[in-house]
Design brief:
By secondary structure, this protein is α/β, with parallel strands linked by helices. The protein has helices at 17-26, 38-45, 56-64, 96-105, 125-135, 155-161, 171-182, 194-225, 229-236, 260-264, 273-298, 324-333, 353-359, and strands at residues 7-11, 30-34, 68-71, 79-82, 88-89, 92-93, 114-117, 142-145, 164-168, 189-192, 305-309, 337-341, 362-365, 385-388, 404-407. An eight-stranded mixed β-sheet has the order 3-2-1-4-7-8-9-10, sandwiched between helices. A five-stranded parallel β-sheet has the order 12-11-13-14-15, with helices on both faces. The protein has a two-stranded antiparallel sheet with strand order 5-6. It is globular. Bound molecules: ligand SAJ.
């Protein structure tokens, strides 16, 4: 019973599925990308990509000369890679899309085919929910969970160079899946079972969430105790066993604010460090709004209009899922008029950067897109206060400007 991996189908052509499909196609494999969203298929057929990621366009152009095609129906294949969203639902991974992908595979599934789940799932989801469903088909199968570990903004590089963890149900599943991934992964490939693979993925994102929460606590302490948190973190990180993360306006994206809940839900005690970290990160939005509101009062800025720079959840990406900018804008809009800008993100309610800079009296930088480091505030005499949640605006940007410049994690003086 060996899947030949001659034809591979990638189900779900999003931030992970499309790059994975193209990397596989680049190795010469026949790859069919499938998505239920006809707009995505139409875009691909019209040679258009629907999200930006360094190197993706070039890879897509190359894939067209290879055996890559996109469509909306699942075809018979040796291998099916599922990379559909698993949103959080009451602390669990919502498996609706995974299950519907499996249902679309069922009619074309042949004995010995391989199914790989790339979507992030809870540690026991493969064993408790996904495998029982496949077993009902009564055909021998190979199965692995190979959680994606690439970061938006550097997806292709990380997909090729990061180590991968493959959790197969048996040795044959592990080896066949390893052969598939080894065709494009240059990092090490480690083999384990599906539950351990899923637990690793959730642990990785939990580690980051808790470490960011710690940095956020340090930032608030720095403001009380009058030290520069950014400098202190840089110096503390000179210690060979310390790696403190960066404070900020809170945490966004589809992983760090979500995946740790898969563990919290399994914890029997209310005293969860992981839950507390998630809450600390969410409440950074309140911290930002309180700090800015206090400064507005102190500086006696009347009728302030708040301009939010950056809506994406992190620098230089076009992804606004779970972004702290949304929470911050909502809190501000209870008291003030708010304008938002982000030239990476496509959203109807956004203004141009120039419009925000030339009309607002208070600027709150939420996302550290490169372009914001080049703003010269002396060109905008209307701006009275700038609050930087990422420590990315240098003092030079305020040469010949009378605006007050505050940074999270530094005491306001
Ligand atoms: N952030 C901070 N301080 C930091 C680092 C990040 O406030 O020191 C914020 C960011 O601004 C952003 C959020 O946290 O709002 C998350 O960004 P991120 O760059 O930490 O992570 P993601 O969500 O883009 O990608 C993560 C990655 N996981 C890890 O680094 C452990 C990526 O490798 C995973 O593939 C991805 O989650 C995922 O899909 O799980």
């Amino acid at each position: 019973m060996t899947a030949q991996s001659n034809r591979t189908q990638v189900i779900g052509l999003g931030y992970i599925g499309l790059p994975t499909a193209l990397l596989l196609a680049d190795t010469g494999l026949e790859v069919i990308g499938v998505d239920v969203d006809q707009n995505k298929i139409n875009a691909l057929k019209a040679n258009k990509l629907y999200f930006n990621e360094p190197g993706l366009e070039k890879l897509y152009t190359k894939a067209q000369d290879k055996k890559f095609s996109a469509g909306s129906t699942v075809q018979p294949s040796d291998t099916f890679v599922i990379a559909v969203p698993t949103p959080q639902n009451a602390g669990t991974a919502d498996l609706t899309y995974v299950i519907s992908a499996l249902r679309s595979i069922e009619p074309v599934f042949q004995p010995g085919n391989l199914i790989v789940i790339e979507s992030t799932v809870g540690p026991r989801d493969c064993v408790d929910h996904i495998l029982p469903l496949i077993k009902k088909w009564n055909k021998p199968f190979l199965f692995s969970h190979c959680p994606e570990r690439a970061i938006p903004g550097n997806t292709l590089h990380e997909m090729v160079h990061n180590d991968r963890i493959i959790g197969g149900i048996d040795e044959e599943s592990r080896q066949v899946t390893k052969a598939l991934y080894a065709s494009f992964v240059k990092g090490n490939i480690y083999l384990t079972d599906p539950t351990t693979a899923a637990a690793c993925k959730v642990m990785e994102n939990t580690y980051r969430s808790v470490n960011i929460a710690l940095a956020n606590e340090f930032a608030k302490l720095a403001e009380r105790l009058d030290f520069n948190c950014w400098e202190a973190i840089e110096l503390a990180n000179k210690h060979p066993r310390v790696q403190i993360h960066s404070p900020g306006p809170g945490v966004g994206g589809h992983c760090i604010p979500i995946d740790p809940w898969f563990f919290v839900r399994e914890q029997r005690s209310e005293e969860s460090l992981i839950r507390h970290a998630l809450e600390i990160n969410t409440k950074m939005a309140n911290h930002v709004v309180e700090a800015v509101s206090e400064a507005i009062k102190l500086l006696a800025i009347s009728n302030p209009t708040i301009g939010i720079l950056g809506v994406a959840y992190k620098k230089n990406v076009d992804d606004a899922r779970e972004t702290p900018a949304a929470r911050i804008a909502e809190l501000f809009s209870e008291k003030f008029q708010v304008l938002m800008t982000d030239e990476h993100v496509k959203q109807d309610d956004l203004k141009s950067l120039e419009q925000v800079l030339s009309t607002c009296s208070v600027i709150v930088l939420v996302t550290d897109h490169d372009q914001y480091a080049e703003i010269n505030f002396s060109e905008y005499p209307n701006i009275k206060l700038v609050y930087d949640t990422r420590n990315c605006i240098s003092a030079n940007a305020f040469d010949n400007s009378s605006a007050v410049h505050l940074t999270i994690g530094k005491k306001s003086s």
